[in-house]
Amino acid sequence: MKRALITGITGQDGAYLSQLLLSKGYEVFGLVRRSSAAEVMDEKLRWLGIAAEVRLVDGNLTDLSSLLRTMRDVKPDEVYNLAAQSFVKSSWNQPLLTGAVTGIGAANVLEAVRLEAPSARFYQASSSEMFGLIQEPVQTERTPFYPRSPYAAAKLYAHWMTVNYRESFGLHATSGILFNHESPLRGIEFVTRKITDGVARIKLGQQRTLALGNLDARRDWGHARDYVKAMWAMLQHDTPDDYVIATGRTVSVRDFCDLAFAHVGLKADDHVVVDERYLRPAEVPLLLGDSGKARQRLGWAPDTSLEQLVVEMVEADIDRLKFQGACR
Ligand code: NAP
Ligand code: G4F
């Protein structure tokens, strides 16, 4: 039985990746940071019905000693570093924390792997945000980076550390440059989930308007359930490498609103208002990925269309609000 260690197991991707690895017969361990709200810590894992099947280990990305101990105790075959301060907007308010967790934290995990589990295969959750102010209309593994936020700068450091540990120490270290991926488990502060939650509330008569920021921003949105399959496939390849994971279709925040409102028979224009509090100091206006390399070498392709994703998210939010489920 293979053993996988996932940092960030309580997040969206951690939950779906755990589900995938359990279905493949893995023993799944997850690093979790202590929280005063321990009762909601594993709510995404519970939503998927797998909380009892994963083993949680107390630790923090900023505490190298906890990572060294975890590697020694778990003896993982595969390590997925998904933990991060992952909300771009917060990274301007907490730039140093973001650097410490999202950047240096990844280096801490790499060090722990190098020192205590050097034969483990390592996955780094890199991001299309690193392309930032895009230098090519369609972004591939060869597109130059231009980070536009403290978050993106921290991810870029983590990405290059992954490449460097691969080249310097021969670690099986892979960087997945994933474009935006969403699901009913997406954090409520991200725009897609904020929209589907808002649509559900408006449909149920609980609110009238939905306040958003830049409606013209365009993203290449896929489903997290599809994207965690790519993470796993990357670590099954004998040669570590970097891969772009994307759908190859980009739409605006406005388009996403139109789809979500239309699903419940409403018009976005009647409810969406722009509130400048949600604008950013610097924007990433457009992302569009070409995942040709992953499709060719890993046989990976997304299964879920944008339309299916929107319907799944809106329906899940309506159900949650109707039944007062805990996973907000
Ligand atoms: P998420 O839902 O925000 O999850 C982040 C996870 O990191 C949570 O489990 C969080 O724990 C944990 N974490 C934060 N600080 C930590 C610390 N100091 N020590 C240990 N754990 C810590 O993010 P996601 O959407 O699943 O994304 C997973 C990874 O992929 C992230 O690294 C993100 O930056 C990256 N990524 C995401 C996307 C996307 O579109 N979703 C695209 C590209 C890259 P708590 O539950 O305690 O907060
Ligand atoms: O949903 P978002 O907050 O995601 P963003 O900034 O693209 O970052 C996400 O994807 C990255 C991959 O490219 C990940 F690395 C990162 O961890 C995270 O998962 O914002 C998407 C777009 C932005 O252009 C933002 O300005 O939506 C725009 N937007 C417009 N109104 C809004 C809002 N974003 C948020 N969060 N809230 C709004 O009200």
Q: How would you describe this structure to a colleague?
A:
By secondary structure, this protein is of the alpha/beta class. The chain has 2 domains: 3-182 and 222-245, NAD(P)-binding Rossmann-like Domain (Rossmann fold, 3-Layer(aba) Sandwich), CATH 3.40.50.720; 191-219 and 250-284 and 304-327, UDP-galactose 4-epimerase, domain 1, CATH 3.90.25.10. It contains 12 helices and 13 strands. It has helices spanning 12-23, 38-41, 43-47, 64-74, 90-93, 95-116, 150-169, 191-203, 224-236, 253-263, 292-298, 306-323, and strands at 3-7, 27-32, 55-58, 78-81, 121-127, 172-178, 181-182, 210-212, 218-219, 222-223, 242-245, 251-252, 272-274. It has a 7-stranded parallel beta sheet, sandwiched between helices. Strands 7-10 form a two-stranded parallel ribbon. Helix 1 links the parallel strand 1 and strand 2 (27-32). The longest helix has 22 residues, at 95-116. The two termini are 34 Å apart. Residues 7-8, 10-14, 31, 33, 35, 60-62, 82-86, 101, 105, 125, 127, 178, 180-181, 187 line the site of NADP nicotinamide-adenine-dinucleotide phosphate.
Distance between the termini: 34 Å
Structural class: alpha/beta
Would you list the SSEs in sequence order as H and E? EHEHHEHEHHEHEEHEEEHEEHEHH
Q: In CATH's first tier, which class of the largest domain applies? A: Alpha Beta
The percent range for helix content is 40-55%
Shape assignment:
globular
- State which percent range the strand residues make up: 15-25%
> How many domains comprise the coordinates?
2
Mean residue pLDDT: 97
For the sheet with most strands, the description reads: 7 strands, parallel
CATH superfamily of the largest domain, by name, is NAD(P)-binding Rossmann-like Domain
Examine the secondary-structure arrangement and name the CATH architecture of the largest domain.
3-Layer(aba) Sandwich
- The CATH topology of the largest domain, please? Rossmann fold
Bound molecules: NADP nicotinamide-adenine-dinucleotide phosphate, ligand G4F
Number of helices: 12
Order of the strands making up the biggest sheet: 3-2-1-4-5-6-11
What is the number of E strands?
13
- Uncertain stretches: none
Q: What would you report as the Rg, rounded to the nearest angstrom?
A: 19 Å
